[in-house]
């Protein structure tokens, strides 16, 4: 029988082999590939933000399909209702004056969920999404049921406008990734002339993710108390304040990044997950990057 150390090492090798193959299908997107794996192992919601045409949706769809499991995606507009994401009410139940959703093959029972343009919805939809993100539950009329997702991901071409519900929804996306246009000439050339871009046939056995998740919370982060205090102080100096809940997510992400890298003891390098978690406005991204460095 393998020891936890041997188990995490084996799963880490498999995870990195997959990440490298997946990332090889894209250009200047390593930070996104890493963030998707981080979200999966940490079991935290992830949202990709950036201008249209930067492969946000493609990366989420392709990543989800690299695992064997049910996939649900939906493009949200201001007219989208909770029914479209969580199931229509059954006519047979309505005839009996009962509310019961037909939730099969919706967000409720999907193992991989992708909501595109996540900040476009109505207040009723935003409330339902908040429940899904907060508690992994959905209201099906007769009560709440536990959702089954392994990964819940969103995308948006823009940050949300200010507003109580939108602020609450934005707050719940624990891992945030800004996706820019391609920068270098070499990468631009590859985009135009390399037919392999955007294609990935790789698969990763879920058993490796199960191992990483099972060992994640056992990662020792006790010796990072001082660096985390320093990091918190520097963020405050930059007028970036994280809530207690967000710091709890940061700890979870540090532990996840540690097991992804085959370790049961976190190190200072794992603090780089803050690049995905320490900002709420685009102007704060370079500030957080400088603080981490």
Question: What structural class should be given to the helix and strand makeup?
Answer: alpha/beta
Strand neighbour order, sheet with most strands: 2-5-8-1-9
Approximate strand percentage: 5-15%
The average pLDDT score comes to 94
What are the low-pLDDT stretches, counting only 5+ consecutive residues below 50? none
Order of helices and strands: HHEHEHEHEEHEEEHEHHHHHH
Distance between the termini: 40 Å
What is the overall number of helices?
A: 13
Question: What's the total number of strands?
Answer: 9
Taking the sheet with the most strands, its summary is: 5 strands, parallel
Radius of gyration: 20 Å
Percent range of helical residues = 40-55%
The best one-word shape is globular
Would you mind describing this structure in some detail?
The chain is an alpha/beta fold. The strands form three sheets. The protein has a five-stranded parallel beta sheet. The model has no long low-confidence stretch (mean pLDDT 94).
């Amino acid at each position: 029988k393998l020891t936890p150390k041997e188990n995490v090492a084996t799963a880490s090798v498999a995870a990195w082999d997959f990440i490298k193959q997946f990332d090889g299908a894209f250009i200047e997107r390593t930070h996104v590939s890493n963030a998707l794996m981080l979200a999966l192992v940490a079991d935290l919601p992830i949202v990709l933000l950036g201008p249209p045409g930067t492969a946000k949706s493609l990366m989420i769809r392709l990543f989800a399909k690299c695992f064997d499991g049910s996939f649900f995606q939906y493009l949200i507009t201001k007219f989208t209702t909770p029914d479209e994401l969580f199931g229509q009410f059954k006519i047979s139940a309505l005839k009996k004056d009962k509310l019961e959703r037909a939730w099969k093959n919706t967000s409720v029972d999907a193992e991989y969920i992708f909501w595109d343009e996540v900040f476009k919805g109505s207040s009723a939809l935003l409330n339902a999404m908040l429940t899904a993100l907060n508690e992994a539950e959905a209201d099906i009329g007769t009560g709440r049921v536990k959702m089954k997702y392994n990964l819940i991901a969103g995308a948006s071409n823009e940050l949300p406008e200010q507003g109580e519900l939108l602020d609450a929804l934005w707050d719940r996306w624990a891992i945030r990734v800004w996706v820019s246009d391609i920068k270098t000439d070499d990468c631009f050339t590859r985009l135009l002339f390399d037919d392999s871009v955007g294609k990935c046939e790789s698969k990763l056995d879920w058993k490796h993710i199960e191992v990483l998740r099972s060992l994640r919370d056992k990662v020792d982060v006790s010796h990072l108390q001082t660096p985390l205090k320093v990091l918190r102080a520097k963020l405050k100096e930059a007028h970036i304040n994280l809530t207690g809940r967000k710091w709890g997510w940061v700890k979870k992400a540090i532990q996840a990044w540690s097991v992804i890298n085959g370790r049961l003891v976190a190190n200072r390098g794992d603090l780089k997950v803050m690049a995905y978690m320490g900002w709420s406005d685009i102007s704060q991204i370079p500030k957080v990057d400088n603080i981490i460095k």
